Amino acid sequence: MSAYKLLLLPGDGIGPEISAEAEKVIAFLSQAGVAKFEIERGLVGGAAYDAHKVAISESDMALAQSADAVLLAAVGGPKWDGVPYNVRPEAGLLRLRKDLALFANLRPAICYPALADASSLKRELVDGLDIMIVRELTGGVYFGEPKEIVTLENGEKRAVDTQVYTTHEIERIGRVAFELARKRRNKVTSSEKANVMRTGYLWREVITALHKREYADVQLEHMLADALGMQLVRWPKQFDVIVTDNLFGDMLSDEAAMLTGSLGMLPSASLGAADANGKRKAMYEPCHGSAPDIAGKGIANPIAMIGSLGMAMRYSFDNAKAADAIDQAIAGVLGKGLRTIDIKGDAPSSISTSQMGDAIVAELKTVLK
Ligand code: NAD
After folding, report:
1. pTM assigned to the model
2. Residue bearing the CA closest to ligand 1, atom 36
3. How far is CA 105 from CA 97, 230, 253, 283, 299, in A?
4. Name one GO cellular component term (predicted).
5. pLDDT one-digit tens code per residue, 6-32
6. Domain coordinates in residue numbering, the chain
7. Residues within a 6 A CB radius of ligand 1
8. Tell me, which fold does domain 104-266 have in CATH?
9. I need a surface site. Which of 43, 97, 110, 340 has the fewest CB within 10 A?
10. Which of 290, 305, 352 to mutate to test the pocket of ligand 1 (most atoms within 8 A of CB)?
11. What CATH number does the domain located at 1-103+272-369 have?
């Protein structure tokens, strides 16, 4: 078994606490012979600023470039509010995404049956929900030029953002979605505003052609982004994989995450282009931030972080056995009623970060027996 090169970036706030729990899982998987790791550690965000006055050092960027995957916990916090803009904690994240060319953001919205009552929707609408939002991450209106605010002759100001997509950008994100669907329930919903936007028109045309040419075995539907926003709260279980642009993906993935009632439990993956050997640069991280309000108290929920490790096992290391085991172990501890404070609800008590990590490792032992 060859070793997976994993760069761990614990970052700030609760980052190091939840990262330590992911390391327990890594140690267990190695010891159980399910996976072999070569672990490097680095600094990102405020931690990198404190040490080197940058948001991520060149040597840590080099480690990220040579790793099979990066596992990042979270960055940021009030301590670094006043640091120069170009070295603020988030700049570390953006540099990683940009330099590794991570164009595909995968955000699952999973509703564990044990937590269905935490959703703002009725239990029957979300119980067992499992959808994957694939958001284009490096193009579209956040990056298109011109992007400016100009003062007109009459003294009024005019702001411009430009939505741009090329065939190539749409095809490569479409491929990620179709490939994922084949490993799931084989359905892709592609979303844009083809009725009012030229980029939406091209998006639909390119996805339709790609589907016909290479993925005719996958069920494809097109849905306008506003209708999709509505359908997500009306009947979310109709979806499997949703693929959409940067702006719509930003909004729809947050909406989908909230359906699960547990934003703090959700992992994410950002993937780059496949090389000649089919390998992609990749970064995995929880959807939540560094939670400075609870940092250092030992009460953060490590599940999104451990779930992110699970996604790395599935998408970077092609180790479905380990990924499935992690998913089952998370569902298992929740099924037993174990809760950290953020998902406590009406439960009589809650457990600490490290108790949750230990419980997941104990459950993994049973799952992998
Ligand atoms: P946040 O996600 O850090 O926290 C929001 C709320 O959820 C807080 O009450 C927090 O205690 C709680 N929470 C989050 N994760 C939790 C966990 N694992 N267990 C228990 N409770 C959890 O968002 P915020 O408060 O808006 O941002 C805090 C800092 O994080 C800011 O500096 C922000 O810029 C940064 N941030 C970083 C990322 C990232 O690293 N990808 C993402 C979002 C925000």
Report:
1. 0.92
2. 289
3. 10, 22, 10, 9, 28
4. cytosol
5. 999 999 999 999 999 999 999 999 999
6. 1-103+272-369, 104-266
7. 14, 74-77, 90, 93, 264, 285, 288-294, 300-301, 304, 342
8. Isopropylmalate Dehydrogenase (3.40.718)
9. 97
10. 290
11. 3.40.718.10
